[in-house]
Design brief:
5 strands, globular, single chain, 6 helices, Rv2175c_C, three-stranded antiparallel β-sheet, alpha+beta, disordered N terminus
Length: about 120
């Protein structure tokens, strides 16, 4: 049996671009990351956010709750990123996709189950 292939975000957004997209000061973007309302990881030495997590001019509604559940289950930011993008057809492709649609509550329930 082969390992499932983990897919990643369709694209990355730098923190200054997130600031512009959300129409927030960069300090507020840093605060969102500290408070686990937004996920940022380092790629090539630069902190970036998966593009799908910033829908239109807002952060996905259920993302902060899921990030806090994952943190409470012992996940660091890289592990949370892997969990969000792990292929899962039951969630419409992966949890990151599910958070933007009708399967958001199921993704949140699965994140909650990781703590037990």
């Amino acid at each position: 049996m082969t390992e499932p292939v983990t897919t990643g975000p369709a694209g990355w957004i730098t923190l200054p671009d997130v600031s512009e997209k959300l129409d927030l000061p960069i300090s507020k973007v840093h605060q969102l990351i500290r408070e686990r309302a937004l996920l940022a990881v380092r790629r090539d030495g630069i902190r970036v956010v998966p593009a799908e997590l910033v829908a239109n001019a807002t952060v996905l509604k259920h993302l902060p709750g899921v990030l806090n559940l994952l943190h409470d289950a012992g996940y660091n930011d890289e592990e949370a990123l892997r969990w969000l993008y792990e292929p899962d057809e039951g969630l419409g492709g992966n949890a990151a996709i599910a958070l933007g649609g009708p399967l958001a509550r199921e993704a949140k329930r699965r994140a909650q189950a990781l703590g037990f």
